[in-house]
Design a protein that fits this description.
- The chain has 554 residues and is mainly α.
- The protein contains 30 helices and no strands.
- Helix 22 packs parallel to helix 24.
- It starts with a helix and ends in a 7-residue tail after the last helix.
- InterPro entries: ARM-like (IPR011989), ARM-type_fold (IPR016024).
Length: 554
Amino acid sequence: MRRTAEELDDPEVASRAAAVWIGPPATRERRCAELVRLDPSFAAVPEVLRTLATRRTDLLDDVLRAAARDGLHGRVRPGAKPWAPRLRPADTGRWLPRQRRQWAAYLASVASDEQVPLRERADAAALVGSPEELIALAGSAPHPVAAAALGSLGTFCAAGPVTAELLETLLRHAGTGGVRGRAAMTAVRRLLDAVPDGHAVPLLAPLVRNPANPVGTRKEAARALGALTGTAVLEALLAAWDEPAQHRDVRAVIAPILTRAVDRAEVADRLSAAMREPAVREAVLGRRAPTVPPGNRAAYTAFLVGLLRDGDDDTVVDACRALPAQAGPEGAPDLARRLAEIAVDPARACKVWNEAVRQLVSLPLTPDTPPLMASAFRTLLHRAGSDDTEIRADALRRLDACAETLAARQDDADLRAVTDSAIDALVTAGLLRRAVALAQEAALCAIRRADAAPALWDRLLELIGKRPERLSPNGSLHLEAGRAGPVAAALDASRSLRGQGSPAAGRLALALVSAVGRATGWQDPWPGELAALREHPDPDTSVEALLVVPGNAH
């Protein structure tokens, strides 16, 4: 076996022969020494390396020198691939400090070598056990290699003292984002898991507070602080917030963390004062609402209500959007009252009252909603009768916006009373086309709910009168094929409308027949319904019915 290992040119066979030859425990250490002195590349045989790393560390010097010189090139390693075996820290811990430094320097040289493929470089970086070498690699190597170095840094340093300088280094890289940033943040979390929160806060707090640090570093330090617990965390974040030169993006990271303690006046006051900063406002009121502990939900709702009262226009708009999810069903009546007040407040800007209207109509319906909306409509109607053109125009615009918003909610049958009240207000204000559009949408949505709703169609025809051009060109009926309820309701409604014989009723009946005919593939009885409309007494209806091609699903 020894002769095979020493003389055969095939590296695979030589490696296997060496592993067999050193097998007997009694002679293993001596035979390993003989092989390594003959050719240091035999250290690449796993069984030989394990013996050197754990029992014959005195032989490592020759191996480390050969690795540094030519990558351990030799009989069992004739190629030029880098050599970076994974060794346990418990094993390398037996080595002399000088040997550990040599090993770390060798691995760092592989990780830094631009001629080595990135995969091998990253593997070598992950094995480096020197913080100095790892920090250097993290700052200079390509992203995959730097990420591996940062991950190794977090693992290696978690066993030792965690310093502010080390955290600052990692957080600086975390602030760059990408694969390097994610690896750095993972290392930070690993380090912080290794120390009590009370010790981690004094390390992170100066990093967030110091305006000389990069913005990315401060942001990541703030996020790391937010993951800790204890009163010292809040104090540190407030101190960082109050830093005069603090960057707005850092405050935007701190803001949702502070929102957890919005029940404290010093927190609520700071957040309210910062709402003019778009980044902070988005962090507190945006689509990704901050997570507030259940015990502080009421305080957060009160905070949002205060913004409705005291905020600038952009803040009020965002608060209107955020409040419905926070108030919940139990807070809906009070919120509806506040939104209604904003909707009719003449001092509010267009985008503010528009958003208030949208959110008001979207709230869960309560017994107070219809009278509340009716009161708002009366207020607007009163202003619509003003002799002042600007006051009248503003009131009409708000009524129009209410109707448009309600039209988009007609799938909700519970809004019938509010819709009727809105139509009455629109008619009184002279907005007849908008009243027709809302009534038309209400009738069509009733069909989708499998309700023929004859009263809604009668009201629609009453509003149209002898002016069929008032029909909304945007109103349309979309049905899912196979839904029997809506199809039956559409049949009842279309026959009733056809029987009235008026131009408006004829056009509505034709719209229903055309839509349902296409949705059902013109199955019976829809071809017959179309044929009947071709004989309609209104000439416009009969001619338009002739233009419809039954059997054309499009």
